[in-house]
Structures are given as C-alpha cells and as structure tokens.
Amino acid sequence: MGHTIREKAKLLARVHRVRGQIEAVERAVENEKGCAQVLQLVVAARGAMNSLMAEIIEGHIRMHVVDPRAKRNADRAKGAEELIEVVQSYLK
User: Fold this and answer.
1) 29 and 38 in contact (C-beta within 8 Å)?
2) CB 28 within 8 A of CB 41
3) What is the DSSP secondary structure assignment for residue 72, as one 8-state letter?
4) d(CA 5, CA 70)
5) What are the residues whose beta carbons fall under 8 Å from the beta carbon of 84, sequence distance 6 or more?
6) Average pLDDT of the chain?
7) Among residues 47, 25, 42, 34, which one has the least CA distance to residue 92?
8) pLDDT confidence bin for 70, thresholds 50/70/90
9) Quick check: pTM over 0.70?
10) 3-state DSSP: the chain helix, strand, coil percent, rounded to 5?
C-alpha cells in the first residue's frame, strides 16, 4: 500500500485547509481588501501548500528511497533523515 493511500485522511485534511485558504484569498480579492491583507492570506496559503508538499515528499522518501522491506542500512537511513530535514526547512 502506498504512503498516499495509507495517509489519505491526513493528506485530505491538509488539502481541505489549502482549499479554504485559497478561497479566503479569492474572497479578499473579490471584496477589494487591501494588498497587505491579500498578501498575508497568500502567504498562509503558500505555507499550507508547502506543508502538504513536505508531508508527501517525506512519505515518498521513507517508502521509496529508504525501502522499508530492505535490510536496514544506517547510512542510508541517516541520509534520508537529513534529506527530509533539508526539504522541510526549505519548504517552511
């Protein structure tokens, strides 16, 4: 079973948050809110999208790069953890 299937509920919750934040941006533009307020909403939406992406990338690394069925390799596992940390810090 793939990680996106196993984590479906959690991922969908993140997607719903992203959708809500994008809709908030749309409402702000439609209601002619100031640029500072619209930009703040865009930043929040981008953060939510980055969090979704980080979640999916982390699952991908854990399932497909560091194969859980393979014999545990400490160096490979450490490299995967370092990669996950870098991706997470980049997407924040």
Assistant:
1) yes
2) yes
3) P
4) 21
5) 57, 58, 61, 62
6) 88
7) 47
8) low
9) yes
10) 85, 0, 15
Helix axes 35-60, 74-91, angle to 10 degrees: 170
Give the Cα separation of 61 and 1 in Å (integer).
15
Nearest to 57 by CA among 13, 7, 16: 7
Strands (E), 1-92: none
57 backbone dihedrals φ, ψ, rounded to 5°: -65, -45
pLDDT digits (tens, 9 = 90+) for 34-67: 999 999 999 999 999 999 998 988 888 887 777 6
Percent of the chain with pLDDT over 90: 48
Signed CA dihedral, 60, 61, 64, 67: sign only: negative
What is the DSSP code (8-state) at residue 71? P
Please calculate the CA angle 55-80-91 and round it to the nearest 5 degrees: 40
CA distance 16 to 88: 20
